[in-house]
Inverse folding.
């Protein structure tokens, strides 16, 4: 068979990694794909820049549009990022009958519904394994290997920057600011870390995972998102005393009334798998009704791991280029006409355990008053920790973990606790993870 000719939009870290991988493992990749895969054209911003990959056989230029319109190009690899120019180029590639591979979670999360509809109409595929969790093949696992299952929930650490920061805060006893600075020094965090620490990057990925899990449209704008930027070292310490570690999780879960889609700092039981994923690594758990819990762990970013997923997508694309579109794996796991709207629950309808820390006057009866308010609302208590004031002039701290309860009810209790004359400002609330065995 004739080679698959790939045009790359953006030849930075990941693009160079793809070229290097195709060069180093070319014979093995050809054996797997059934035909040679070669990058023949690439668009870059600066033609004079030294590249970290061999480019002698690549026609380098600066015009992305020329690549998506080149009749010799079979597959367009989009690696420029964002949802502006990248969206226009991907749609143009589809209109020109080209398959697309992308690592752009921002683009898929925000514009994927339109992109996949256009691709289905044109009879081409858009592959995006590298958009979620770098080198971990979570998209393929959920779309294909777990296709027989009704997926009940997905939970994971899908942002290595935030996980590294929390690991440093936990094990090195440093503040959030110190851990972030360390992450930036090591290259795990950008100069502007907003997308990572505020949970936006994780929400992009959760939108994709949730859509594949439940057969719903991509719904990034309806995901409840909390970052780690306001997390205090004290709460990491108290959680540890109570047998938990705090992780920044993306969670998608079915409930009787709809689907929970949420990203936030989460208390995870210290013996759970996700509690023990440290540093910049990613890990995702998926629960299927037939298979039970399954786990996927590995590098969530970097040239090698991301290139691994990109090239795997290129191999899949090479295999299916001559396959009738009706026989291909659907983009979002479900047949396009079976993607259905579900109610995406808002925070008051989340059901889980809760952690809260409240600062109170050091007086007799305060603890009984707080627990009494919880009892009146039928909120069960899983654990209590009381920290005496360091001096007679200071306030005490009460830390409580509740049993599973609807969040709206818990908020009623917290409002009542805030209104007590013995309560001081600064109540902290976090959610607790609950995983089925």
């Amino acid at each position: 068979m004739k080679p698959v000719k790939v045009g790359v939009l953006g030849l930075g870290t990941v693009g160079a990694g793809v070229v290097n991988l195709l060069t180093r493992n070319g014979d093995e990749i050809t054996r797997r794909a059934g035909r040679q895969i070669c990058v023949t054209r690439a668009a870059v911003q600066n033609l004079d820049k030294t590249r970290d990959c061999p480019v002698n056989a690549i026609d380098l230029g600066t015009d992305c549009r020329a690549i998506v319109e080149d009749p010799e190009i079979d597959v367009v690899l989009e690696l420029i990022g964002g949802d502006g120019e990248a969206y226009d180029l991907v749609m143009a590639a589809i209109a020109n009958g080209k398959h697309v591979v992308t690592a752009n979670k921002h683009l898929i999360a925000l514009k994927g519904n339109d992109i996949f509809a256009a691709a289905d109409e044109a009879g081409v595929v858009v592959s995006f394994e590298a958009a979620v969790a770098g080198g971990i093949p979570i998209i393929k696992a959920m779309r294909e290997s777990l296709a027989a299952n009704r997926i009940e929930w997905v939970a994971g650490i899908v942002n290595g920057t935030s996980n590294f920061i929390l690991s440093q805060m936990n094990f090195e006893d440093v503040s959030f600011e110190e851990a972030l600075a360390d992450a930036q020094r090591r290259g795990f965090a950008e100069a502007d870390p907003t997308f990572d620490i505020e949970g936006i990057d994780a929400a992009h990925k959760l939108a994709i995972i949730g859509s594949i899990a439940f057969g719903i449209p991509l719904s990034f704008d309806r995901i409840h998102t909390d970052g780690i930027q306001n997390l205090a070292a004290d709460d990491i310490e108290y959680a540890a005393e109570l047998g938990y570690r705090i992780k920044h999780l993306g969670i998608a879960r079915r409930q009787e009334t709809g689907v929970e889609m949420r990203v936030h700092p989460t208390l995870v039981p210290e013996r759970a798998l996700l509690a023990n994923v440290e540093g910049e690594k990613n890990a995702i758990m998926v629960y299927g009704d037939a298979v039970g819990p399954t786990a996927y762990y590995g590098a969530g970013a970097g040239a090698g791991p991301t290139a691994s997923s990109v090239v795997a997508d290129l191999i899949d694309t090479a295999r299916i280029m001559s396959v009738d579109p009706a026989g291909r794996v659907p983009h979002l796991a479900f047949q396009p006409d079976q993607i259905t709207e579900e109610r995406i629950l808002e925070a008051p309808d989340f059901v889980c355990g809760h952690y809260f820390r409240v600062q109170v006057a050091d007086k007799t009866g305060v603890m009984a008053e707080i627990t009494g308010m919880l009892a009146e609302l039928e909120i069960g208590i899983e654990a209590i920790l009381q920290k005496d004031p360091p001096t007679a002039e200071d306030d005490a701290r009460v830390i409580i973990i509740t049993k599973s309860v609807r969040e709206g009810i818990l908020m009623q209790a917290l409002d009542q606790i805030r209104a007590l004359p013995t309560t001081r400002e600064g109540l902290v609330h976090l959610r607790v993870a609950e995983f089925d065995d």
User: Anything to note?
Assistant: The chain is about 35% helix and 25% strand. The chain has three domains: 4-135+303-338, 138-299, 347-432. The longest helix spans residues 105-122. Residues 139 and 209 are 7 Å apart (CA to CA).
